[in-house]
């Protein structure tokens, strides 16, 4: 029986793609890199920069730290991160789950202070018992590491009673590494085929379908 529901942030709870892509373009321009097409930029919404910068944007090792700092200046200090919206139907899903007694956590590879700032700005932080995210020094960075952080903060949570909801293969892979199940959703940046291929137990197109599944399991 599912009792605890961990939510990815970018692409699952919120549409943060416009602000993230703007920050990436500004960063790449500053360092003289070619700006890739929109599809490639959108792949950077979700995974940690330790993966997306070298693999999708081809940022060189010697530029990595300063490039991340440039991005974070725009995204955090200049409040670019607040240019985001809650996906349609998601707040209703959160409200319904809380009213039915489920324990909700945010589980994101975004730095935790930034995640808290965004969720507070959008007014949906009230639905979550805990908000867990990456550390600024990247010692906690991957989805698996953040899931483990969730369990450290709630040691009474049992893995067999916990599910992660996310939109990319990184969410599914992280859940598999820790030993919990992952529900995939298609309103973010991932694809149905990728989510199933990496081991999502189900993939849904709408928040109300997620609610029905959780209530039935």
How many separate helices?
10
Q: How much of the polypeptide forms β-strand, as a percent range?
A: 15-25%
Question: How many domains make up the 3D coordinates?
Answer: 2
Mean pLDDT, rounded to whole units? 94
State the strand order across the main sheet.
5-4-1-6-7-8
Q: H/E element string?
A: EEHHHHEHEHEHEHEHEH
Structural summary, described in words:
- A six-stranded parallel sheet has the order 5-4-1-6-7-8, with helices on both faces. The chain has a two-stranded antiparallel sheet with strand order 2-3.
- With 217 residues, the protein is α/β, with parallel strands linked by helices.
- It has two domains: 4-15 and 84-215, HAD superfamily/HAD-like (Rossmann fold), CATH 3.40.50.1000; 17-82, DNA polymerase, domain 1, CATH 1.10.150.
- It starts with a strand and ends with a helix.
- The radius of gyration is 17 Å and the shape is globular.
- It is 46% helix and 16% strand.
- It contains ten helices and eight strands.
- The protein has helices at 17-30, 38-42, 49-55, 61-77, 90-99, 112-122, 143-153, 169-178, 192-197, 207-215; strands spanning 4-7, 14-15, 85-86, 103-111, 130-134, 162-166, 181-185, 202-204.
- Strand 7 (181-185), helix 9 (192-197) and strand 8 form a beta-alpha-beta unit.
- The mean pLDDT is 94.
């Amino acid at each position: 029986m599912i009792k605890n529901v961990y939510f990815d942030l970018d692409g699952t709870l919120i549409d943060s793609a416009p602000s993230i892509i703007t920050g990436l373009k500004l960063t790449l321009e500053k360092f003289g890199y070619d700006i890739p097409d929109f599809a490639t930029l959108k792949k950077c919404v979700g995974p940690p920069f330790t993966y997306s910068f070298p693999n999708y944007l081809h940022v060189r090792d010697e530029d990595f730290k300063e490039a991340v700092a440039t991005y974070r200046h725009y995204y955090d200090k200049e409040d670019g991160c607040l240019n985001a919206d809650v996906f349609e139907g998601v707040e209703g899903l959160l409200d319904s789950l809380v009213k039915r007694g489920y324990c909700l956590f945010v589980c994101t590879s975004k730095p935790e202070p930034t995640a808290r700032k965004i969720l507070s700005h959008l007014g949906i932080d009230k639905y979550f018992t805990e908000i867990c995210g990456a550390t600024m020094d990247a010692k906690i960075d991957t989805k698996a590491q953040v899931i483990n952080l969730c369990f450290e903060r709630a040691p009474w949570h049992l893995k067999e009673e916990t599910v992660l909801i996310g939109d990319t293969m990184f969410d599914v892979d992280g859940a598999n590494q820790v030993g919990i199940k992952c529900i995939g959703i298609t309103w973010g940046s991932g694809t149905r085929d990728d989510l199933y291929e990496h081991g999502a137990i189900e993939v849904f197109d709408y928040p109300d379908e997620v609610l029905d599944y959780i209530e039935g399991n």
